[in-house]
């Protein structure tokens, strides 16, 4: 790759929206085993056994962002055998406290809207209710 092209690609990398940054607690049973989701402002996230996994933003709107995890990331679902997380769509709910999460095993699965798992995360400082109550009311299982 030509050095100037590489610099241009880096310079045009789209940052994740500010609302995505921070720590998110799992509310849905599908994600309880994955524990806390932490999204850093430098387009990295930590989730269960994957720490500081890089991602690129592939699509964004006012309340939704779709990311593609780096090929070397070790992020997997808590199923058997473990499904590698490839593409993840985050959708911020109107209350700005709850985050719909859909995990896809491939970009093609995301295009077909066929998630491997989907559910809800929330900010701990928000009045959405305790995670155990939300998990019971908003449970979504892995597919």
Strands of the widest sheet, in order across it, are 1-2-3-4-5-6-7-8
Low-confidence blocks of residues = 1-11, 129-143
**Number of helical runs?**
3
Q: What proportion of the residues form beta strands (DSSP E)? A: 25-35%
H/E topology pattern: HEEEEEEEHEH
Shape: globular
Measured as a percent range, the helix fraction is 10-25%
Radius of gyration from the alpha-carbon trace, in angstroms: 15 Å
SS-based class: alpha+beta
Largest sheet: 8 strands, antiparallel, barrel
Mean pLDDT: 83
Features:
143 residues, eight-stranded antiparallel barrel, 3 helices, 34% strand, globular
Protein architecture, described:
Strands 1-2-3-4-5-6-7-8 form an eight-stranded antiparallel beta barrel. The radius of gyration is 15 Å and the shape is globular. It is α+β, with helices and mostly antiparallel strands. Strand 3 (44-47) and strand 4 (50-60) form a beta hairpin. It has helices at 3-11, 107-111, 131-137, and strands at 22-26, 37-40, 44-47, 50-60, 64-69, 87-92, 98-104, 117-122. Residues 1-11 and 129-143 have low confidence and may be disordered. The chain is built from three helices and eight strands.
Give the topology.
Elements: H1 3-11, E1 22-26, E2 37-40, E3 44-47, E4 50-60, E5 64-69, E6 87-92, E7 98-104, H2 107-111, E8 117-122, H3 131-137
Antiparallel strand pairs: 1-2, 1-8, 2-3, 3-4, 4-5, 5-6, 6-7, 7-8
